[in-house]
Design goal:
The chain is about 25% helix and about 30% strand. It is α+β, with helices and mostly antiparallel strands and about 270 residues long. Helix 1 crosses helix 3 and helix 2 crosses helix 3.
Length: about 270
Amino acid sequence: MTGEPTDARPLSVRIADSLRGRIESGDLAQGDQIPTLDALAAEFGCSLAAVRPALDLLRQQGLIITKHGRGSFVRDASTERRRITRGRMVMRDPARGYVFPAAGRPDEPWQTHGQPQAAAATAPTPIAAILNVPAGAKVVRRRRVTSPAAEAPFQLVDTWIHPDGIVDAPQAGEPDTGPGGYLDRLEEVGHGPITWHEVFRVRQPSREEARLLEIAPTLPVVELSRVGSSAKTGKPIEVTVCVIPSDRVEFETELQRDKSARWPTTPVIRST
């Protein structure tokens, strides 16, 4: 005698499939809040340990987002990834000062989430090494969470300024840096023109980064580190680290042909 076939899949997978079905059918619409962990555990008659991996799976698939302290929500599919052309051009906005390729168009309004910070903080080991300060040294850190107007937090930006830069331009370490921002203050006292180079990498966020960006700790982030070097010393005077959730951005680059790749190609004359 045989009964109904048994679903051998892990319970967390079955919970994820059930929620996915509700999202695809419209029972859970874009922006709707997902039931709480306790509610899902009661519904499926299981422990929280089975529910958490189910939500992790939906987050990894881009179906839901989690906002720390508020819960999980069905992802708004109308929010597309921002495509950023990774050129080499640094622009300038009369109101904001320098605009780098990862920050968007000069005429695009951006907002700050929460209160920007400017205070001494312990420099992470990689930052201390770049600025050539002792490990564990206190360095002025400017921190802000920003996004295009009316959008969710898009990027966490930490700028670490060398102690010499703060001695030369104290206003660069204050919350209100004046027109043009901290870079103008550094350049005005002899560090300009500052030159920059960038490094990209993909990694997992720290718990603090996940909290500030309102993302799950399991979602990878893109880290862009931009090192600004002083024209006066030839050494790094500031380091800016932008952390962007990987599901919110994609980068594109226009490729150019080197002379060796010109078309039409030069015919190869073979000897007989």
